[in-house]
Design brief:
The complex is a heterodimer.
Chain A lengths: L1 E10 L2 E11 L4 E5 L6 H9 L6 E6 L2 E2 L4 H6 L1 E4 L11 H11 L4 H14 L15 H13 L5 E5 L7 H16 L3 E5 L3 H7 L2 E6 L2 E7 H8 L3 H9 L4 H13 L2
Parallel strand pairs in A: 3-8, 3-9, 6-7, 7-8
Antiparallel strand pairs in A: 1-2, 1-4, 4-5, 9-10
Helix pairs in contact in A: 3-4, 3-5
Chain B lengths: L1 H16 L2 H15 L13 H18 L1 H4 L1 H6 L7 H4 L1 H21 L1 H4 L3 H7 L6 H35 L6 H36 L2 H24 L4 H7 L6 H4 L2 H12 L5 H7 L2 H24 L2 H6 L11 H10 L3 H16 L1 H26 L5 H5 L2 H22 L9 H6 L7 H29 L1 H22 L17 H28 L9 H17 L26
Helix pairs in contact in B: 2-10, 3-10, 7-10, 7-11, 7-12, 7-15, 10-11, 11-12, 11-15, 11-17, 12-21, 15-16, 20-21, 20-25, 21-23, 23-25, 23-26, 23-27, 25-26, 26-28
The chains are: A alpha/beta, B mainly alpha.
Chain lengths: 254, 587
């Protein structure tokens, strides 16, 4: 079980996240939604241990993750928002390096890398340098790097970014499979349709504060609307249609 | 049996290499060579092999060129029959020490950005179950490995070839061996000192200044270090002579000149040093140790301030003030930049030149070189106690604006070739008409915007004060005209939007281009000022320059007009020349 207790992070005097609390149970897929600047990335960084909270703590199996960060990270699979990879390494070399740094045995590592590269349709390109990879291929490399050590907790930050339809479908099914096998998944995204389909629970952030937290089914029922409309109603109560019309008017203006 | 042992050793080495710590060191060494920063920002990425070869070349070349000095037959021809090689090698050894310091220091300046792990390393490595201490140590090992590797690489050729050349007249192998060991000690320590000194200096500033302030001034500080290194190299011919002449009292400047400490160390180890040099040599080893210690301390501080705080920096809200625009500049822009291409690309080129670290660094290096050469010319002009007016009209003084404008024009032309984040040039590929490019025009406007005011500032006020308005106007006119002509010549067949094309490949005509630059420098910065100096005795003689100027104006125009249509198209990629050509006879 992963718990966030009264998590708060301030940069200088600016609060990025305030009093965020939730519990993530095995099998649960918790989506984190919010507009730009709502504190999603800061939350993810605190959950991965990249940032220390100003107040509050993150507990995994009833222990503060900062008590033994390395042990926690052994059980963590993380896909960051941006695919910052080393362009001069090949896909295979990158995964081999990550696996080695995770302390995976060599025989197991080689077999896993080969199998996962084949399953993600990257095997033919495994020896090409990452610099030549497309955005989707890089994203797939990140996904493999996050799952190949069979972690307990998964933190995905915009994991579908750049993926083609097939890879995206495979990934969505993968998340559901992970959930079924009792893993913990924290899923940050802007794609509401995917969240609706894949996640069991939702956490909506606005200006660093939780404004809604419930199961996907319940959140929709509150207002009797689709998730997209509920989200808009909660986060930015603006008339998107009228904004779109205004944009076209500005475009047409001489 | 042997095969089995070799196989077992190979497997063991493979297993050893796969240990996490060594894997990290390997990764950091690669980053130090390939550069940090954004994932695919394509800069001057030379690759490890080529970089090491280029760094090793100067030492090897200079050693071979010295054969001329140490060859017995040539010495005999010069009438020098009883020469002590240890005495005549004194200035050459100093040159090698300075060369090794300059090259190693320049590498430290160039690779400074990659010395600390960056955001990409943070995102990839910190979420893994490895401690920050392991990352710290692995990067430190990589930095020390790089320092050692460069010190050995830069000096490898000179450590073998120079002792061979010096010992050419000696029959004993022991002479060669002793000389080689002492020389290697001197140059390697000098290299290590230069690396750690640059590291300490930049590291101290990094520790003292707030990160945004350091980022802003970093390129200029690095430029200053480059200027110092170039000055050290360009004065290397004068220092040994001054040191040899110092009998009894040691000049104070020698105490502040690190290269002289290492030269003295070599002389002391050979038992050839007087009391003054022994005093200097005592500074060498403590200096290396102190520089290494300060480098370590600043590394620890820098690591804490810049790497550990990366996630906080990226999330911090930074507000920027809007740029101020002036009506005068807007009007000037309307006059100078008449097409939409020029109005869009001119600011793009200038903003890149001012904001991109790699481009600023190259420009600062070129400006440093211009400064050194200009000050040398100024010193030469005033040698011999000439009057101000005589000195001002000497070829050396007249050459100053020519030297500066030549280096700025060629420097800018070179900088245009350095690509910057090629992933972003899709916008130009999408929008520009490849058949109707105005790249040469754009390049000319960018260069002249810098060069013309520079020529005016350097040439006009000083000459108006020293030699009268008439000379000042003529000199400024001559400098301006030749600067425009040189700019035209430098932009012959230029068909790229600056910074958006892949790096040009090394071709056979690269050597021709290099030689043309050297030859051009001799004509532009030496011959023209000499002619101008003689012409000021009778200003009508300046008219004799006109045919040459017309020729230089006409040739680039003719070459541009004769360029085939296919070679006039705008390019975004330097494609390699084919080894064979398809004739397509059937088509």
């Amino acid at each position: 079980m992963l718990e966030a207790l009264q998590l708060t992070k301030r940069y200088a005097s600016l609060p990025a996240v305030q009093n965020l609390s939730f519990t993530l149970l095995p099998g649960q897929v918790l989506a984190c939604l919010g507009p730009n600047g709502s504190g999603k990335s800061t939350t993810v960084k605190m959950l991965t241990g990249l940032l220390e909270p100003t107040r509050g703590l993150v507990r995994f199996h009833d222990r503060d993750i900062h008590d033994d960060l390395q042990q926690y990270r052994k059980m963590l699979g993380y896909v960051p928002e941006e695919a910052h990879l080393y362009p001069y390494l090949s896909g295979w070399e990158y995964l081999e390096m990550i696996g080695t740094l995770r302390g995976m045995p060599r025989s197991e590592l080689d077999a896993k890398i080969n199998s996962l590269l084949a399953l993600f349709s990257l095997h033919p390109n495994r020896h090409a340098s990452i610099g030549t990879y497309s955005k989707g291929m890089r994203q797939r490399i990140l996904l493999i790097a996050a799952i190949m050590h069979n972690p307990e907790i998964f933190i995905f930050d915009e994991p579908l970014s750049g993926l083609d339809v097939t890879s995206a479908l495979i990934f969505k099914n993968l998340v559901q499979e992970l959930s079924r096998s009792g893993k913990l998944v924290f899923y940050c995204s802007h794609v509401l349709e995917v969240v609706e389909k894949v996640c069991t629970d939702i956490l909506i952030l606005r200006k660093g504060v939780v404004i809604a937290q419930d199961s996907v089914a319940n959140i929709g029922q509150i207002l009797g609307q689709s998730l997209e409309n509920t989200f808009l109603h909660l986060v930015d109560d603006i008339d998107t249609l009228s904004v779109a019309r205004d944009i076209v008017d500005v475009m047409r203006a001489a | 049996m042997t095969k089995a042992v070799i196989n077992r050793l190979r497997i063991r080495w493979d297993d050893y290499r796969r240990r996490p710590f060594l894997r990290l060191v390997e990764l950091f060494v690669a980053r130090l060579f390939r550069g940090g920063g954004d994932a695919d920002a394509e800069g001057l990425d030379l690759g490890m092999g080529l970089a090491l070869t280029l760094l090793a070349l100067p030492g090897g070349f200079v050693s071979i060129l010295l054969l001329n000095k140490y060859g017995t037959f040539l010495q005999w021809l010069r009438g020098a029959t009883n020469v002590d090689p240890l005495v005549i090698s004194f200035p050459d050894e100093y040159f090698f020490i300075v060369l090794s310091m300059t090259v190693t220091g320049a590498v430290a300046v160039w690779r400074w950005d990659a010395i600390f792990p960056d955001r990409r390393d943070y995102i990839n490595l910190v979420p893994l179950p490895i401690s920050m201490r392991t990352i710290f140590l692995a990067n430190l090992v990589a930095v020390f490995y790089l320092a050692g590797l460069i010190a050995i690489d830069v000096n490898a050729a000179s450590c073998i070839l120079f002792p061979m050349v010096v010992g050419a007249t000696q029959t004993r192998f022991l002479f060669f061996l002793k000389f080689a060991i002492v020389h290697a000690t001197g140059v390697l320590l000098a290299s290590a000192f230069a690396f750690f000194a640059v590291f300490s200096f930049l590291g101290l500033l990094m520790a003292v200044l707030p990160p945004p302030a350091f980022k802003r001034v970093s390129a200029y500080i690095r430029g200053l270090v480059m200027v110092y290194l170039v000055t050290l190299l360009s004065t290397s011919f004068a220092v040994p002579d001054a040191l040899m002449r110092a009998k009894g009292t040691l000049p104070q400047w020698a105490l502040l000149l690190p290269s002289s400490w290492f030269l003295s160390l070599c002389q002391s180890l050979r038992g050839r040093a007087g009391p003054e040099l022994i005093r200097l040599s005592a500074l060498a080893l403590p200096a290396v140790a102190v520089a290494a210690l300060i480098a370590m301390a600043t590394y620890i501080l820098g690591y804490r301030r810049h790497f550990v705080r990366i996630p906080e920096m990226t999330d911090a809200d930074v507000s920027h003030s809007a740029p101020r625009s002036s009506r005068m500049f807007a009007r000037l822009e309307d006059q100078l930049l008449r097409t939409s291409f020029l109005r869009a690309c001119f600011p793009f080129v200038w903003k890149t030149l001012l904001r991109s670290e790699a481009h600023r660094l190259v420009l600062t290096g070129v400006s440093g070189l211009a400064l050194v050469l200009a000050s040398q010319a100024l010193m030469n002009a005033f040698q011999g106690g000439k009057s101000w007016r005589t000195a001002a009209l000497s070829p050396d003084a007249l050459a100053i604006p020519f030297v500066v404008t030549f280096l700025v024009i060629i420097g800018l032309r070179l900088v245009f070739e350095i690509p910057l984040d090629l992933r972003s040039n899709w916008i130009f590929q999408l929008m520009l008409d490849r058949d109707r490019q105005e790249c040469a025009n754009l390049g000319r406007k960018v260069i002249l915007t810098l060069v013309v005011p520079l020529a005016l500032v350097i040439a006009f006020p000083a000459y108006a004060y020293l030699a009268g308005i008439r000379v000042a106007v003529l000199h400024t006119l001559v400098v301006g005209t030749w600067a425009v002509l040189l700019t035209n010549a430098a932009l012959i067949r230029f068909r790229k939007l600056p910074f958006t094309c892949t790096l040009p490949l090394f071709k056979q005509h690269s050597i021709v281009t290099l030689l043309s630059c050297c030859f051009g420098y001799l004509i532009y910065a030496v011959s023209i000022p000499e002619f101008e100096s003689s012409a000021f005795r009778g200003p009508l003689r300046l008219l004799a320059m006109a045919p040459a100027a017309i020729l230089v104006w006409f040739v680039p125009r003719m070459m541009t007009n004769n360029t085939p249509e296919i070679e006039r198209k705008l390019i975004f990629e330097e494609s390699p020349e084919r080894a064979f050509e398809l004739l397509r006879l059937s088509e």
